[in-house]
Specification:
Length: about 325
């Protein structure tokens, strides 16, 4: 089968289209014929092997998992003897980051417990956009104890996670203020944001409002900057952004939280079929719509990864595999 692989850390130039044997599912796995996949920041970080702590699990000197791609949507081609939830022919989607990735291939094996059934009215492209980004957004908002009527600030609102966070927060009854660049403001407003801040015109330090929850899906702001924007007993959840921002949340967040009623915490999202099913219901009822930025052919994955790494995506980048 065809797969896009890498044997050394680097930029998109280390990715190669190769022929490898088709995998065989174990007793608790299914074999998926991949129809579509999508790119996430996790793919970019794994490709580069940075931050270096990722290599503790992904391979110190070279990648342990040679095929990237966490999000997959496709059709089940075979099932293991212990699989009970799915049958051959079922259309499914899910996040394989806990299963060793593998979505940049024509076929991939996955544990049945990370997959959900794709609604017949949902396209494979929309399904592939959901798993990692939407679940990250939902888990981040839940970790921030989101409540209806709260005022929420979302930094990085135009990216893959951010576009879902805006819509999920609105679906849960929050008042949403979103931060993005000039060219993405109309798109973010169309997702339901009550207020939109153009970071090219208003510096982060000049924001005067305070919020019950700050969700940092992207950006390069200090923990103290986020703390300033929190109401008493407010919570900031950091799920993405620069390495500096993430490390500050990991290392300093607990110190800030102990010394104040305001809390700073980081999020390590995990694949969760129950959360993904909840998102699917929001999509089916029209409360959430995946924002698809660009579509690429399978052989153009290196180009798509370069576009992802440049940091200008509006929503999700989709790869049509078959």
């Amino acid at each position: 089968m065809n797969a896009v692989t890498y044997s050394n850390y680097g930029d998109s130039g280390v990715l190669e289209l190769t022929q490898i044997p088709q995998p065989t599912p174990s007793d608790s796995e299914v074999l998926i014929k991949v129809k579509a996949t999508s790119l996430n920041a996790a793919d970019w970080h794994m490709l580069r092997g940075k931050p270096y702590m990722l290599r503790l699990d992904g391979g110190l000197r070279k990648p342990k998992h040679p095929i990237l791609g966490a999000d997959v949507a496709g059709t089940i081609e075979a099932i293991g003897s212990n699989v009970t939830n799915f049958q051959v022919g079922d259309e499914v989607f899910g996040d394989l980051s806990g299963d060793g990735f593998g979505g940049f291939a024509e076929y991939v094996c996955a544990s049945e417990d990370v997959l959900v059934t794709k609604p017949s009215a949902m396209s494979f492209e929309d399904a592939a956009a959901l798993p990692m980004a939407s679940v990250t957004a939902l888990q981040g908002l839940k970790k921030g104890n989101i409540q209806a009527g709260q005022k929420i600030l979302i930094n990085g609102a135009s990216g893959g996670v951010g576009t879902f966070a805006v819509q999920i927060a609105k679906a849960l009854g929050a008042e949403v203020t979103a931060i993005c660049s000039t060219g993405k403001m109309d798109m973010v407003r169309s997702l339901g944001a009550d207020n939109v801040i153009d970071y090219t015109q208003t510096a982060f330090k000049d924001i005067q409002e305070t919020y019950d929850l700050v969700f940092a899906a992207n950006g390069n702001e200090s923990i103290q900057s986020y703390k300033r924007l929190l109401n008493p007993n407010g919570i900031c959840v950091v799920s993405g952004g620069s390495m500096s921002q993430i490390f500050q949340a990991l290392l300093l967040g607990s110190v800030v939280s102990i010394a104040s009623s305001k809390k700073i915490t980081s999020l390590l999202a995990k694949p969760n079929a129950e959360d993904l099913s909840f998102i699917t219901e929001l999509v089916e009822t029209g409360q959430v719509t995946p924002v698809l930025d660009k579509h690429y052919a399978f052989e153009d994955i290196p180009e798509a990864m370069s576009y992802l790494g440049a940091g200008h995506a509006k929503g999700k980048i989709i790869i049509n595999v078959t």
